[in-house]
Amino acid sequence: MPVLTPLLVARGDEIVLSTNRLRVAHAEKTAEPSFGQTYARRMDLSAETEWIRFHLTLEVRDVIERLKLPRVTDWDHFYYRFVADYRLDVAIDGVEEHIEGELLHELMLL
User: Fold this and answer.
1) What's the whole-model pTM score?
2) What is the pLDDT of residues 45-73, one digit of tens each?
3) Could you write out the DSSP letters of every residue in 36-56?
């Protein structure tokens, strides 16, 4: 089942979408070998209203930072930073745009 979480999309100084109905789906889960924690190698994020359609796909290329954080609870905490390729398809008021590139994203298991 997809996770629902907030999303804000802006174009210049104009907010074109502010919603708490972002769908997040994880795929290709794998265990990171240093600490054995599971992460998704691919994520699909999407949202849709009557005037905007948003779909973002992230595909992890590499784990570039991995840390076991100081223990402050009865369980361990971890931080990961990934380099990923992204593809964004967005349509605002019927005008479609496709953007691709590279980004960094993070995962914290607290």
Assistant:
1) 0.82
2) 998 888 889 999 999 999 999 999 999 99
3) --EEEEEEEEEEE-SSEEEEE
